[in-house]
Amino acid sequence: MLFKLREEESIRDMRIARAFFNGFQIAAVGGDKARAKVFAERAYMARKVLAGDDNPTAIEFKHLGWQPVDYPLCGERFNCWDDSWEAPRGSYGEELETWLWNTDGWSRYSSS
User: Fold this and answer.
1) Which residue, of 8, 33, 93, 97, is most buried by count of CB atoms within 10 Å of its CB?
2) 18: pLDDT confidence band, cut at 50, 70 and 90?
3) Nearest-CA neighbor of 27 among 92, 66, 80?
4) Are 68 and 37 in contact (CB under 8 A)?
5) Per-residue confidence (pLDDT) for residue 16, from 0 to 100
6) Which are the contacts of 94, defined by CB distance < 8 A and separation ≥ 6?
7) What is the rounded distance in angstroms from the CA atom of residue 29 to the CA atom of residue 6?
8) Structure letter (DSSP) for residue 68
9) Residues 51/58, Cβ–Cβ less than 8 Å
10) What mean pLDDT, rounded, does the chain reach?
11) For the segment 58-69, what is each residue's pLDDT rounded down to a tens digit?
């Protein structure tokens, strides 16, 4: 979704990486490890494209993609209510985006 916007709007700065990191922070603070992981992975990919794989912030985003619970505020607002670390199995494309951005309404549970 945001990568498509990047192409359409010719965005060539860190706004996309920052937007994904903001999504990570919201998910992490809310205790949603699965979404936090996906957002951190995307923040890493966006940052890597613009700053390189050896950029300190890219390295941090990569680590948070592996271990979102290492973020100091992870679960600060709510306890981690879901032990799942992964997006729903078999979710790709639009289905994954719907789950990630929660466009079908609020749910505390992963798609089943």
Assistant:
1) 33
2) very high
3) 80
4) yes
5) 87
6) none
7) 26
8) G
9) yes
10) 78
11) 999 999 998 888
